[in-house]
Structures are given as C-alpha cells and as structure tokens.
C-alpha cells in the first residue's frame, strides 16, 4: 500500500492522520502540506477576506485560539509536519495542489490512495486521477449534511444533536463524492467549535485507520450520497457570527 496525505498543518489534520501513522507508517510515502490559509490567497488577502466576510470578532477569535492553544494547549498534539518528520516521510509544501510541480511530486510517489485531511485546496481532476485506487477526503460532518467549510460551527448554530465524520471519494464538487465510510458523533452539552473539531477529527482518524486495517481498499464500493437540498457552506457571515454569539455559543473555552 502506498498512501499520500494532503493537509493544512494544524492539529485537526494531525488527529486525522496519526492513527494510520501509528499502525502503518510504512504505507505512507508522502505528505503534502498547504502553505496558504485560504486557497489561492496570500496571508494578507486571507486576513482581508476573513474580516470582510466574517468580521473582526471572528478573526480575533481564530487568532486568539491559535495563540493560546499553542502556548497553553496539550504538548502532545501532533501536526502533519511533525508526524512526517517523526516517521521520516517525504514532505512537499505547496500553495496549489493543481500546479505542475505539485502534480509531478504526486506522480513520483506513485500512490495507491491520496487522502485529504482538513486540506484547504480544491483538488482538480488531474490531481484526483493520479492515485491508482482513488483520492479520498476525510470530512468533519455526517455527509451530505454540512458540506464545505466550518461544519462544527454551523451544526452548533443550527442546534443539531449530532455531527459526524465522513470518508468519501473526492469528485468535482465540494464534499459531494460517494461515501466510503462514516460515523455519527454526538454533540454534548456545552460543546464548543473546538471541541467538535477535535472530536470529529479524532474519531474520523480512528475510522480511517480501522477501515484500511480491515479491508482491501480495492474491494471498497462507495455509496452515492442521497439526493436532496443539502447546502454547501462557506466562511460564516457577520450575521451568522451575531446569531452564534446571541445563542451564547463558544468557539473555545480555553
């Protein structure tokens, strides 16, 4: 088995990857890490976009969480970069997975499976077609609900009782591809966005490792997602943030 991970370099992607590393690091031949917070935007453009779309409160909440979690959070958390370094896995940094240099690196690794874990890029057809078996995504919701961005935020905002983790084939849509496996995750009283992101990433990562441990991926037959009016979400709007705060919901407790 030859597996390549795609990721942003954060702890949620690390949670998704670490269980497979622990069981079968010899299967992992490459790690691709995004160099941009938002696909095809510089850091300055990303800051402007987030403030314009979601407002200054949301922006500072994200900055605050990153800083405080880095200073006072668990010292045991793993990032994709630290996992790759720990297990001596070849790592490639890119601002666009669809550029020729990125595609060449993917081809050089000759992957059976490419797995996106909290990755911020649109994965185009040329990139999707490189893997021998398929290109998959591990998403932090129970698809087809909450496709796109910020599923934990919107699940809390909408008063859901559960969320989930879904492993699916990547197609030309956003989180619309056939389902390989998924698990439901209960929302507990007092859960924050961070809590749900962490729990769904951890449970999803375990699900992924157990699936590949127990099944030949060539024998997997993904199931199409149900038809229906299932919206795809983007960054929260200022109105979404206002409603979130009005309901006394939290991004994090730390």
Explain what you see:
The protein has helices at 11-24, 43-54, 56-72, 80-86, 100-109, 125-128, 151-157, 193-214, 238-246; strands spanning 3-7, 28-34, 91-94, 113-117, 134-139, 147-148, 162-169, 179-186, 232-233. By secondary structure, the chain is an alpha/beta fold. The chain has a single domain (3-246), classed as Rossmann fold (3-Layer(aba) Sandwich), CATH 3.40.50. The strands form 2 sheets. A 7-stranded mixed beta sheet has the order 3-2-1-4-5-7-8, sandwiched between helices. It has a two-stranded parallel ribbon with strand order 6-9. Helix 1 (11-24) links the parallel strand 1 (3-7) and strand 2. Helix 1 (11-24) packs parallel to helix 8 (193-214) and helix 2 packs across helix 3. The longest helix has 22 residues, at 193-214. The mean pLDDT is 95.
Q: Can you summarize this structure?
A:
With 254 residues, the chain is of the alpha/beta class.
List the helices and strands and how they pair.
Elements: E1 3-7, H1 11-24, E2 28-34, H2 43-54, H3 56-72, H4 80-86, E3 91-94, H5 100-109, E4 113-117, H6 125-128, E5 134-139, E6 147-148, H7 151-157, E7 162-169, E8 179-186, H8 193-214, E9 232-233, H9 238-246
Parallel strand pairs: 1-2, 1-4, 2-3, 4-5, 6-9
Antiparallel strand pairs: 5-7, 7-8
């Amino acid at each position: 088995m030859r597996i390549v991970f795609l990721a942003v370099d954060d702890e949620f992607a690390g949670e998704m990857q670490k269980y497979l590393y622990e069981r079968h690091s010899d299967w992992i031949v490459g790690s691709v890490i995004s160099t941009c917070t938002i696909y095809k935007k510089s850091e300055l453009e990303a800051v402007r976009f987030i403030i314009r779309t979601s407002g200054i409160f949301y922006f500072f909440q994200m900055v605050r969480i990153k800083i405080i979690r880095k200073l006072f959070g668990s010292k045991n958390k793993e990032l994709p970069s630290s996992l790759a370094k720990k297990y001596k896995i070849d790592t490639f940094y890119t601002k666009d997975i669809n550029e020729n240099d990125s595609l060449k690196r993917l081809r050089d690794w000759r992957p059976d499976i490419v797995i996106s874990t909290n990755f911020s890029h649109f994965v185009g057809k040329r990139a999707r077609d490189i893997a021998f078996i398929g290109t998959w995504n591990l998403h932090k919701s129970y698809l087809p609900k909450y496709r796109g961005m910020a599923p934990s935020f919107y699940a809390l905002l909408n008063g859901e009782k559960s969320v989930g983790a879904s492993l699916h084939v990547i197609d030309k849509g956003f989180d619309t591809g056939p389902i390989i496996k998924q698990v439901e995750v209960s929302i507990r009283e007092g859960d924050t966005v961070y809590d749900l992101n962490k729990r769904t990433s951890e449970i999803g990562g375990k699900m992924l490792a157990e699936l590949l441990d127990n099944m030949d991926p060539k024998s997997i037959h993904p199931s199409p997602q149900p038809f229906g009016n299932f919206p795809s979400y983007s960054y929260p709007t200022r109105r979404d943030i206002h409603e979130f705060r009005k309901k006394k919901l939290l991004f994090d407790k730390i």
